[in-house]
Design brief:
Rossmann fold; Four Helix Bundle (Hemerythrin (Met), subunit A); 2 domains; alpha/beta; five-stranded parallel beta sheet
Length: 409
Amino acid sequence: MHAWPASEVPALPGQGRDLRIHDTATGGPVTLDPGPVARIYVCGITPYDATHMGHAATYNAFDLVQRVWLDTKRQVHYVQNVTDIDDPLLERAERDDVDWAALAERETALFREDMTALRMLPPRHYIGAVEAIPGIVPLVERLRDLGAAYELDGDIYFSVDSDPHFGEVSHLDAAAMRLLSAERGGDPDRPGKKDPVDPMLWMAAREGEPSWDGGSLGRGRPGWHIECVAIALDHLGMGFDVQGGGSDLVFPHHEMGASHAQVLTGEFPMAKAYVHAGMVALHGEKMSKSKGNLVFVSALRREGVDPAAIRLALLAHHYRADWEWTDQVLQDARTRLAHWRAAVSRPDGPSADALVEEIRDALAEDLDAPAALAAVDRWVVLQESKGGTDAGAPGVVSRAVDALLGVAL
């Protein structure tokens, strides 16, 4: 599966700071010091109802991570998956009376278009669950051979008791885990499971549903969590720098994925930092496919909204915060964009050297994009009120905003 084209990232003078970011597993900040190549895995979409503003906010957060690392003169090895086979996708295809594979292909293509328009830097590897199945099957077989997996009516489950570190990502109690498992694709009430929250590794073929050759597992399809583990281990290995996604992935997805990988390899932890973006609401409720209260990037683009304004609307909120999309949020972003573009269109202006360092400092401190925007706003106000004599300043601001914030002026 191919990703989307990369926009050029302007080179800036000097060098950025190492990233200090909130780690869900420890509950506090960690300073990441990757080697020459920083490694990040971000969980991708299940391709239906793409790309809504919640998606966009999440991928914007991890685009900033990439940009901070690139500014430190590192390379970035970024991997993202597409869950192009899963129950919700099949349910949507049946509801709409369309082929599930065609639906996945269409929505993935739309997602690529939206990511391109928003200037999100693409992953080096963009892998679909279906194409990863040949690598998933041996991992499930190995977990079974290790005694960490068991069969139940033909399905294969992972035993959470097999990982001594289970629970160290989310730090939830058993009752909370069971509740979230039921809400987020698990089956805690199924009789015969060793633990109610044990997740499925391999689903035996169901009549009328797609299935693949699973070798000794029989025909079927992979569970959600083992998909990402197989892709991450194949392309990044253990101990990569950041495991990212929305806060709704903390449990069960990232908790289970960590345990799968740790049992498979005997190493701990799977990732040095577990980083999660907040949820976006509309009309007081979390924006979600199940509620149908979605604002789509593609719809806004069709209405003529500049993608740079959409990106500024996202950047106006700290990535870990839960926030609400409103018409005013978008209008504020459009107004800000107009002021910024007018300011950098002048032939000269106030010196911008300090501004570049302010943006770097803000982003290095847990991706504080609102503080970075406020710094640019201050330069723009100074430009509008007093101007300046530095002929290079508008260009410096334009390149810094592009390179570090992904906004083309």
